[in-house]
Design brief:
Elements (H helix, E strand, L loop, with lengths): L1 H21 L4 H13 L5 H8 L3 H4 L3 H26 L7 H29 L6 H25 L7 H36 L8
Helix pairs in contact: 2-3, 3-8, 5-6, 5-8, 6-7, 7-8
The protein binds 2-acetamido-2-deoxy-beta-D-glucopyranose (NAG) (3 copies).
One 2-acetamido-2-deoxy-beta-D-glucopyranose (NAG) binds next to helix 5.
Length: 206
């Protein structure tokens, strides 16, 4: 135990000195590096980086802030998809079953919007003793949003590859990729928290 504490102290002091050297380089550069490294654990790292790097200066090196930004980007894309699918559900000349599939999509995507909004609100009050509980609610909601988006895609499955079907699929696919990335970043936050609380020595906070 004593050896572990010594190891942690050595580790935290060496981390401090490496921070001291990195903060002397330009902040913009180190912030985008932070985003690149967090994105490496997502399923679509290039999309993750291109969608989140514009917010580098807001995020800094704060993982909670990065998760909130990722959820907002996902919400924005989902709202965009919702508008598109709603508009296309009124297209004339569709088969009845196809119209129904598109209307189901409108419904699923609407649910995803609610779940993502709820997640963002919860992320903003993520502190205190029920941190872990709140974070696991967020994980549940974001994965429900992803399931809704997948359900929409599956429902659109058998309707050929016309222009309308393609534009719905492209939009939902892009949205689902962004949501998957946001979920990975939230999961990373949870894992980070768990590993920190496992090593719950106060010396780690010095
Ligand atoms: C990270 O951001 C969150 C949300 O804005 C904030 O509550 C928290 O204090 C920040 N953490 C650090 C270490 O600055
Ligand atoms: C919103 O949808 C339009 C049309 O489908 C697309 O061109 C645009 O890139 C989308 N924007 C976002 C943020 O997803
Ligand atoms: C939709 O309905 C048409 C006409 O009733 C039918 O031929 C087609 O197989 C249906 N498509 C799917 C994917 O269920």
């Amino acid at each position: 135990m004593a050896a572990a504490i010594v190891a942690l102290l050595v580790l935290s002091s060496s981390m401090k000195s490496s921070f001291a050297t990195t903060t002397t380089t330009t902040t913009k550069c180190s912030n985008t590096n932070y985003i690149r490294s967090c994105c490496s654990s997502t399923r679509y790292p290039n999309l993750c980086y291109s969608s989140l790097s514009p917010y580098a200066s807001t995020v800094g090196t704060n993982r909670t802030k990065l998760a909130i930004v990722a959820l907002k980007v996902s919400l924005h894309a989902t709202q965009n998809t919702s508008a598109l699918v709603k508009k296309l559900s009124n297209t004339n000349g569709l088969l009845i079953n196809e119209t129904n599939a598109i209307k189901d999509c409108v419904y699923e995507v609407g649910d995803a919007i609610c779940e993502l909004k709820q997640s963002i609100e919860e992320m903003k009050v993520l502190r205190g003793s029920d941190f872990e509980f709140k974070l696991s609610s967020v994980e549940t909601w974001v994965s429900a949003a992803l399931t809704d988006e997948d359900t929409c895609m599956e429902g659109m499955g058998g309707y050929g590859n016309g222009k309308l079907e393609k534009s719905i699929r492209n939009s939902v696919t892009n949205t689902a990729m962004l949501t998957s990335n946001a979920l990975a970043i939230v999961d990373g936050l949870a894992q980070n928290y768990k590993s920190k609380s496992k090593a719950h020595s106060p010396s780690t906070r010095s």
